[in-house]
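Continuing the series of single-chain predictions for the mutant panel. This is the parent chain; the variants come on the following pages.
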Amino acid sequence: MESPVRAEPATPTLAPPAPRNHTPSLSPGAEAKQKRSEESEGTANECESVDTEEDPICLSLLSKMSVFVEEPAEDASEKAAAEEAAAKERAEREAQRQLLATEELVYTERNYLRLLQVCTCTIRSNLQKLQPPLPNLDSMFLYIEEVIDVSGRLLSLLDQKQVTPHDPLFLETLCDAFLSLSTDIESAYKEYLANYNNVTALESSYKQKEPLWTEMVKVIKSSAPEVNATSLSFFLVMPVQRIARYPLLLQTIMKHTDPGHPAYSLLEQTAHTSIALNCRINEYKRFREVADKYTKTETLTIRDKINRLNSHSIAKKTARLSQFIKHETGIAPKLVDEEFDALEGFFYLLENGIAVLHENVETYLSHLQRFLSCRPEEFDLDMDGEKPAICYKEITTALRQWILPTFEKRMRTLVHKPLCALRELLVGPRNLIRKRLDKLLDYELIEEKPSLSYDEQAVANTYKTINTLLLNELPQFNGLALTLLWGMLGAFSCLHKDLAADMEQLFQGFAQQLPHSSLEPNAFWEWAECSVLEGARMLESLCRNVEDQLNAPIVQPLSPGSQKCLKVLTDKHGSGKIYQLTGHVVGTRDLDLSLNRGELVAIISEMDTRGDRRRWLVDAGGPRGYVPSSKLVRYHQVTMDPPPSPHLTVTTMDCAGGVRRHSYTPDVRRHSFSPDTPQPVRTVSMTMSCFQCDCRGSCPSLCLTAPASHSVKVALKLKVMSIIALTYKKCYCDKNDISRSS
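Parent structure:
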């Protein structure tokens, strides 16, 4: 290949003329080209010399040349027409595809809604008729009603406009309807999808029971024969598939829509909204899976916990403990999140308040149940002819049989049960908060690393997920829990208001027949307060005496086995070292014994090896060990009394001195005994059926020496007045006294 030669500038010198007969030698191709050019030039010269209007040959040549000039213009117009026709055909084809995609979205939505209604109405009602009933059947259809509702609203918005998919305005109507319901669609589907794992687990439990599953399949096939379904998951998986098809259908419609269409921008926004909606639902589902994983409580034995230990778990817990110690000692800084710390503090404050309220309500109901268990009005107390006493009896009967039982039932339904449910709901957030602390310690160890491994990245993602979940959900939980708590307190107040109204209505029927009914309100309340306080004082004195009596040494006949043990201990250690337990003892330290109330032991040493006199070394007739000295009293041998008299007796004679004293009063005289001298025998008479106060008749309401009718009248009066004082909160007596009086 020859290289190009640069052209030199022409010089103004004239070359000598060439000879006339000299012709340069040319190649054959060049000769033919020169010949053709000479012929064309000759033809052109001839045509110019001849008159064109008179020569027909020249005219034909000119016409042929004009045809050749016009041919490119006609080809361009035909090509433009063909392209226009192809574009029109393509636009029609795209419009047809857009119409098909739009019709598919609407048709599949109607069919989807129809199948869900068949599942929730027909199939569900038929499954509920099975015997025995299916356990947790309603959990299979949890949150599906919300999905059906939002789908029906979407179709109703399309039907309200009365436009068909062929109408140009239908696309705009579809986009507006979807965008207006996007929030409701997300809230309905995210709860359903988060609960779908529980649905599949429940259906798997049904499949494990072959006879039950066979009956369920028969019911499903007979209820929906047109779809040939063999399980509930055929219907229940449809919402999971449907929410994922919305972006695909909308993107298909947008693909076949001309960008110049008036609704194209709205359609593009709707498609992006559906994609973002699916992303948020998936993220919420992932959060729920993490929450369900860490909020569930497991009851593991020590063996199970030991079996779960491995090198990885031991290393992880050791690293957490090390990091925690560094935080507490100030060696390493701790990540501080003020927003979360505030939420956590409020949660624990709320939890403590709910626990205290739950304990108080249970104590309140327990006292009320004990009060209702006593029915003195059922006994005939010989009150004929005394109208006030009869009125008090009728009032007490109405209170115990109708008013207070109804109040207790409403209290358990409106306050106690919701409070128990709310307390159980606190377990999940509490476990999640504790797990966040563990994950935070793990996250702090890997936070400063420049690159993370796959496992370390998973740890970081888990912490961020739990932290984000708590920051988003814990404020809502705290708000709802506080609202429920205020509602329970309001119900508690309203119940007592209704109780006061019922009691006021009851007392109005007996107002004229009761004493002190004519007093002024201030004088009446002053009298009621004084009466209640006086009754509470006497009742406290009685309770104190009863407590002293109950704490007295146990005096009861021994069983044959105990008598044998007593003989063995007496022969071995002597009668002076025999003691008896006043309460149950549970061993909590080394060499401690666990004994029951009333068992006999022999004292070996009144201190332990360290000189502690609160622990005595005893012999229990076989095993030896330590018991608290406060639980031991010297044993008193019991003598058998004759059968009790049916009549009340108020005195007994002490076998030692014959001094008259009350039947329940223990012998307070002290005697000095030696291990070799026998102890005096105490005899206690069990002929009294009730207790007696030390007033010597000064308080006839409780003293058995007073007339029976008067004591019953005053006792009932005190009970009624205590209820009045509790109801209107006008009494200033101690809370414990009121509870004991109840």
